[in-house]
Amino acid sequence: DAKTTQPTSMDCAEGRAANLPCNHSTISGNEYVYWYRQIHSQGPQYIIHGLKNNETNEMASLIITEDRKSSTLILPHATLRDTAVYYCIVRVSSNTGKLIFGQGTTLQVKP
Amino acid sequence: DADVTQTPRNRITKTGKRIMLECSQTKGHDRMYWYRQDPGLGLRLIYYSFDVKDINKGEISDGYSVSRQAQAKFSLSLESAIPNQTALYFCATSDSDRGVAYNEQFFGPGTRLTVL
Questions:
Q1: In whole angstroms, how far apart are CA A32 and each of A5, A20, B31, B104, B113?
Q2: What is the mean pLDDT of chain A?
Q3: Chain A interface, mutation test: which of B43, B96, B98, most A Cβ atoms within 10 Å?
Q4: Searching chain B, which residue's CA lies closest to the CA of residue A38?
């Protein structure tokens, strides 16, 4: 599975969009990009995933660059409850089901 | 997620003791996982199971063993606990019927284990 690089921490004002970048320059053609978040010592929560097209669900949007070497998770209207560690994970679409978590980005949403 | 439960939620034990952490799920998922998390770090996979008769090692299986007693139950054992196994332990489940690309894992609330 490809390695990912994320900023260690970011701040965002409440009500504004939070844009969390992830670099995965060694991604291969059959690897998906997944995003999870972990709110203070709780179990991680799935947010979204994508292969090459942009994706949107009720929680967030995922923008993947055309060369697929980077992506951005967008929380359109961040709230204080979105304060968490956000993990970008790249893995092969296979039957292994394994997730490899890095250190993630700590997003602090401020009033 | 209340559909995935872990017991105990907190445990303090001594070096050399045998400890079992239990995980139960009511989601009907076939796949179950055990992760550990150390302070300030991401989660690391210990073991995973795709079915009752299937057990696979993850990144850091040394010092741990698992048992998949039923589809809904997956337990993690530390045969002889040591202080560097002090960590937060998470169980997770996923559903293989969702397709190979879809890997939403549902996590339990975690067990905080301290080995003195």
A1: 15, 17, 19, 12, 33
A2: 91
A3: B43
A4: B42
